């Protein structure tokens, strides 16, 4: 696929990261792009767990041809906050479950993720799209190594932040941006390529019934990935009524641009100092339509479900 557009995906696996990665890799040939790197970052769990989870998923998919790079262990400025009892995804990011998968470690590279991002963007100027579905630490570090780096990218897609100040980890901040607000600030305030963001509120609006996810989409447990994700999501979702694979919504917007029903452009920044609002994404609502950041407000749920079916097929 030498002539295809290139993709780097940066993640902090996480079940929704797992769905996003699976969807992205399954769509390569059909939609005409090539995933050239998976970069791992501290977020839902520590980066060592993220690496292990990524290798486990690639082994289950039979996609150990894709290189994996270990990235940042901590946020850009402040140390990683310790969470009592882990978080929504479990301590290890995948529900703390043993899957019985023989893990192939071949994809793991010695090169650091930050160096790999710089190298690949310079090697394929203007041809690499970036999909970042965890904290933006790796990208901010890469940008500090080479000012103007993001001018070499085609498009940057981000799952993170919040449009109206609705939080999911504090009253006012979304998890990815709250984990490393300084990194998000560095990225969003840079001179760079076009940016598209799926914020937390969009994910809330497009939650899918958990019954559909488990009983229909997840019916074929002969598939190793379905078996893994069913086990994890049965545990972490419990009796919740809805399934919300936030990172997969972003990947859907990348794969099928027509999936985006409503989007608006803004100047965007991230609050760094507020006692109650640290990590909140702030939009210049007074100048709606002006700015290089496109906020994706709505996606076509029918097209999203179709991509889900293509993923598990």
From TrEMBL:
Domain Inosine/uridine-preferring nucleoside hydrolase: 7-306
One Pfam family hit: IU_nuc_hydro
Any one GO molecular function term: hydrolase activity, hydrolyzing N-glycosyl compounds
Protein name stated in the entry: Inosine/uridine-preferring nucleoside hydrolase domain-containing protein
Domain of life: Eukaryota
Family label: Belongs to the IUNH family.
InterPro entries: Inosine/uridine_hydrolase_dom (IPR001910), IUN_hydrolase (IPR052775), Ribo_hydro-like (IPR036452)
Species name: Anopheles epiroticus
